[in-house]
Amino acid sequence: MDSQAVENEKILKNVADDIKNGKYKNICVMVGAGISTAAGIPDFRSPKTGIYHNLQKFNLPYAEAIFDLEYFRENPKPFFELAYELMPGRYMPTPTHYFLRLMNEKGLMLRCFTQNIDTLERIAGVPEDKIVEAHGSFQYNRCIECKEMADSGYVRHCIETKDVPLCEKCKGYVKPTIVFYGEGLPSRFFDCMYEDMEKCDLALVIGTSLLVHPFADLPEIATENCQRLLINREVVGDFSERESDLMVLGDCDALVRQLCKYLDWEKDLDELVKAN
Ligand code: APR
Q1: What is the ipTM for the molecules in this complex?
Q2: Interior CA angle at 250 toward 248 and 234, to 5°?
Q3: H or E stretch including 73?
Q4: How many Cα atoms are found within 13 Å in the side-chain-facing hemisphere of 273?
Q5: 115 annotated binding-site participant
Q6: Is residue 1 very low, low, confident or very high in pLDDT (cuts 50, 70, 90)?
Q7: Active-site residue flag, 97
Q8: Where are the strands (E) in 141-181, listed by range?
Q9: Is 122 in the pocket of ligand 1 (CB under 6 A)?
Q10: What average pLDDT does the segment 101-106 reach?
Q11: Is the minimum distance from the CB of 93 to ligand 1 under 6 angstroms?
Q12: 252-262 vs 3-20: helix axis angle to the nearest 10?
């Protein structure tokens, strides 16, 4: 077993023991696109496979333009072509998503902060009141001009037929309430952020580059009493700046399964994965 695997095993065993002996009761998870890659949804920045490395066909001025409000106002087509590829209903939750559900069902989850717009946390069975979709999702749709809400069925139909949905009221462009660059995050994010991070005793960061703020502020504002654990392919954000930081590097589904084994949750996890 290589040294990283030995280190991962030691860390995950210790965290599992601390969870089993009741040391952690208010666990906040903070997740990104890395937990949905196994579902078939590419993340954004992984070399070669990341969405931002595969947008050549759209001739964008720069990759993030696909989520830029001003660019969308000029040319909404690239976003809707990407939306067609990312739209919920085509993908199933991963073992990591079911681990999040188990965390809640065992009474340990304070909040699940996600940057993902795929709603796979909801589909996996994490209850809505525990989820903060910091970058919005496909769940709701609104006109970018008059802010009138639009029917989701109509928007889904437009995405599937490669049309651009228009507002019934003002004929402006309609888009899912996914947070674009240039837009503010939902107020729910800020309402939960400060309150939850005061109480959080284990901050579990999984599958994110922690490059986009204010989401990436979450682990940074964790109190000194909060244990931070990173499960990711590489070290990100300000992890390793705190002496107490724990980092297990590798594939999130494999590492989460290992954690479930030490928690004696493996049977529960398998039942959820198999049942769906
Ligand atoms: N297991 C563990 N880590 C993984 C896996 C995996 N199977 N797959 C990818 N990762 C890691 C990558 O190494 C990277 O560190 O997950 C991280 C994904 O980072 P990004 O692609 O930047 O995705 P994310 O952090 O969610 O992006 C944040 O950027 O453009 C915005 O709004 C967009 O919400 C998105 C935000």
Answers
A1: 0.99
A2: 75
A3: helix 69-74
A4: 18
A5: yes
A6: confident
A7: no
A8: 141-143, 149-150, 174-176
A9: no
A10: 98
A11: no
A12: 50
